Amino acid sequence: MQYKQWQLTSRPVGEPSRDNFELATVSLPEVGENQLAVKIHYISLDPAMRGWMNEGKSYIEPVQIGDVMRAGTVAEVIESRAEGFAVGDMVYGNFGVQEYAVVDTKGIHKVDPSLAPLPRYLGVLGMPGMTAYFGLLKTGLPKEGETVVVSGAAGAVGGVVGQIAKIKGCHVVGIAGGKEKCDYLTHELGFDAAVDYKDDDFRGKLKAACPKGVDVYFDNVGGDILDEVLTRINLHARIVICGAISQYNNTKAVKGPSNYLSLLVNRARMEGIVVFDNVKHYGEAAQEMATWLGQGKLHAKEHVVEGLETFPETLMMLFKGENFGKLVLKVNHQE
Amino acid sequence: MQYKQWQLTSRPVGEPSRDNFELATVSLPEVGENQLAVKIHYISLDPAMRGWMNEGKSYIEPVQIGDVMRAGTVAEVIESRAEGFAVGDMVYGNFGVQEYAVVDTKGIHKVDPSLAPLPRYLGVLGMPGMTAYFGLLKTGLPKEGETVVVSGAAGAVGGVVGQIAKIKGCHVVGIAGGKEKCDYLTHELGFDAAVDYKDDDFRGKLKAACPKGVDVYFDNVGGDILDEVLTRINLHARIVICGAISQYNNTKAVKGPSNYLSLLVNRARMEGIVVFDNVKHYGEAAQEMATWLGQGKLHAKEHVVEGLETFPETLMMLFKGENFGKLVLKVNHQE
């Protein structure tokens, strides 16, 4: 069977574009022993993908030139030679930006379409949800009554961070771009306040939203926003470095946080996280998240764009701040 | 009695100079109840003094314009109306850059000139020693066999950090300016390696000195050196932010660490420290440090410059990297 896949054909300098990829037609190999053939329905688009396109040492191997672009996906088993998986099962796995795949079962788990819409397994019940859960609770260590600020707050990770912080009894402030996203945070997700980073008086608005300073800052964006929050942190604040979407497409050096000496003044800590470190505890976390979803304490939003062929442009929505909730690409198969 | 004191007369922009100070002649007030009159013999000159000259919120109040410049000192009691202090006692206290002072006894402790030369109570047995001890052990958390890198390694704090790390069984690398300082680190202080940051191949030399990467980085300098070390850190590395002497006299924004996303890749931590937080435990620390000194495991070096009148220029030696060991100003009284 022939199918389409997006291959990385060159390493982007600055913003990635269609020129860095090729939509190739390839053949599905035979399904070997202990393998599955899967039909991919939903593809997760994440800021981290930008980093995977770069050469060099990171927390994960870069995607090689000519390889299918790496991505988390939800897919349907269409042929199984592996125990425990049957045709028709829906599974989560890193199957890449393509229509089909033949895969080993390592790192795959089944998902239940009757419990949640499938795209949700790429959002709050997937990597972004796990990132929010472990990053906030294990590294941010929020205490009741503390102020938690999160950037990229209308994104897949940020929205969950803020809601978990609310569940933990914190004063929660989201940073997002534009009135619509800010309204969503306060009206639909229950944030105490939201600050628009595009506002001319971002500094003043942030200060007003955090009258007791900032105890935990969960940073998804880096750049000027990180620097601004650094001026507001309290003694012993914890800054969780989850990402820096404002910097991923830089062609010059990353803008380091000029105000990092606020860490000294405030005996504060800045710490990086990678979600994969918590893989052994995903099960417990997913259970607790599902409970909160069921209780209506946690709300999820997915932003689904249709069409595998739109991949390069859809991915760029992340860096332009055009997505609203977890960005997911829906594959419409050509049969 | 009339005496001399250095007053801060304007806030420096960039490098401080003689123009920011005035050597005023003032009168010693009467000694009130529970007070002492002291004759100051040694004045500690520290990078942190630059920060105290700035306006604005920090971990300590700024020195006010017209006030005597703040400094740690070792002084002799010349009149006592406070219980527990007698004429002739030698004491440590923040008495400022001046010849004499009338002071309350809060924050003062006696020092024993028979146990160590007096300047040492401003170095390894004083704030720099405490900073090294608590910063390394409580925040750096070095484990046996790990690699510890320290910048400003020939300075008052850095030299002690490296020696304590050796005592704890670490592979210790110092960063300092020039061959003489580097030789001092390896030949006299027992560092495993020293790297000259002025070397054209600083990057390559640092890499060679840390074949197993960097587990703990104790940073006194900030700037490019911090960025360079960030490229070499290991998983779960701890970066102790003690100071950033390369940035204190900036007239532009501080250079933030462009490579801070290495914290994410390596799930590493960057944390600021202020020595005063450990004041309750100074006693235990001083005891342990004195033991190590006695056992010859810890060596101390003070760089003593004579003459209160040289204060502005002597202070600048810190920022030019001209001091070698703990910089101390010796007061020659005018009687």
TrEMBL record, chains A, B:
The entry's keywords: Oxidoreductase
Record-linked Pfam families: ADH_N_2, ADH_zinc_N
SUPFAM superfamilies, sorted: GroES-like, NAD(P)-binding Rossmann-fold domains
GO molecular function: oxidoreductase activity, acting on the CH-CH group of donors, NAD or NADP as acceptor
SMART domains xref list: PKS_ER (SM00829)
All residue ranges annotated as the Enoyl reductase (ER) domain in the record: 17-329
Name listed for the protein in its UniProt record: NADP-dependent oxidoreductase
Source species taxonomy: Bacteria, Pseudomonadati, Pseudomonadota, Gammaproteobacteria, Alteromonadales
